[in-house]
């Protein structure tokens, strides 16, 4: 009884008062009958206030009234009894015998409140001497409800000893003799309660298992979300790092090419500038001598004119009238710039291809087992998924479980095609599939245990044993799988037969892995199954 109260409150969510005729909704939550009616009448489609699950199917199109729907819902007798007991404890705190004295005690069997004087009398009377009388302050509704005796359905003051299943009534021995002697299904109340306890215990166990399965499924989904987020962050960081590096390459290329162009054109411009300065000097000399000749011919003083005619010809004849100077040839940097740009583009394309390949490997270089309702890692609808070839360097890749392995669950693949080397390597790895790559598998993974036909490979060691000898003779149709048992030991399975323990302890969490690279083998991932 106490467990029920821990799970369900004694107050209705809608009215916030103690339950009155508590009705069990299809989802398992409780509402008062009147609250069910008012809640449904207040909304066009009223779902449970807790979880929004429908109170009645096809409610919008139903011709039933809210009252009829509420009456059709089952009543929770446990909460109803607890609510009634709670009402008894809070109402009228006066002694039921004295009327004018505050009650300090309550009889669990009689459900009567008493003052200290009446309590002493109650304990002395032979009929009530064995009753449990406790302080009103310490008695809980659950205690009162659990201790109240079962009373006969026809005689409310007589204790019931028998349960009639034909009429679904608790009755006294007198009623059994007078009214129910011909009923077919009658047994003592204690036996019926024991049977009911067994039924409810089985239901509780079944519901607990279902609850654990759902929690595990939600936990698996949460782990998948975390794994996906980690993979997202790693890939985003890789993209940012690569693009930042590419941007650095582009900027460096920009600087180098601009410097190349500036140096080449600048050298030519400097040569032109030197020629220009020399021509400007010659122009200045010609212009100044022209002014001398002009002044002499214009002013024409006789002595000066004669003197100019004698001196100026020699000076003019000494001037350099050449306007053609040798200029260094202009070297166009275009071919070198073009080649450099093409080289940078090639480098960037290679880097981008590697980035894309890495992201593709991280997502698709592994074939993952799928789930079934989230409880186990299985293929939905018992369908299969064939591995896809991703890298031409390797005929095959890696098959790995998407989620962490579940204890005592067999992870298996079926061999569809074999090549010259009809062997398969399998085991477990501590690296999630999002972090695995085909090309650098054993360099990237951590805590791996790989079973081979000749022994077991570990991260830093090897072990010669006979566990994997059955792998030497696999053929098309063979089933090969691994199991981690409850003691964390790794088992090898071939065609449904346990070949033994390959590793006595493997770290958790771990992922089932099948390495098919360079072995010419094609496989299909099979649904997982419980290992016994």
Describe this structure in words.
- With 532 residues, the protein is an alpha+beta fold.
- The chain contains eleven helices and 22 strands.
- Strands 9-11-20-13-14-15-16 form a seven-stranded mixed sheet.
**Helix share, percent:** 40-55%
Give the number of DSSP strands.
Answer: 22
Report Rg: 48 Å
Could you say which overall geometry the principal axes of the C-alpha atoms support? Answer: elongated
- Order of strands, main sheet, comes to 9-11-20-13-14-15-16
Give the integer mean of the pLDDT values.
Answer: 77
Count, helices: 11
Oligomer: single chain
Question: Helices, strands, pairings?
Answer:
Layout: H1 2-7, E1 22-24, E2 30-32, H2 33-41, H3 66-72, H4 77-90, E3 105-107, E4 112-114, H5 116-124, E5 133-135, H6 141-147, E6 162-164, E7 169-171, H7 173-179, E8 186-188, H8 189-299, H9 302-317, H10 334-364, E9 366-367, E10 385-386, E11 398-400, E12 409-417, E13 425-429, H11 441-444, E14 449-452, E15 455-458, E16 462-463, E17 479-484, E18 490-494, E19 497-503, E20 511-515, E21 522-525, E22 529-530
Parallel strand pairs: 9-11
Antiparallel strand pairs: 1-2, 3-4, 3-5, 6-7, 6-8, 10-21, 11-20, 12-17, 12-21, 12-22, 13-14, 13-20, 14-15, 15-16, 17-18, 18-19
Helix pairs in contact: 2-3, 4-6, 8-9, 8-10
Which short descriptors sum up this protein?
single chain, 532 residues, alpha+beta, seven-stranded mixed beta sheet, seven-stranded antiparallel beta sheet, 22 strands, elongated
Describe what is shown at a glance:
With 532 residues, the chain is α+β, with helices and mostly antiparallel strands. The protein contains eleven helices and 22 strands.
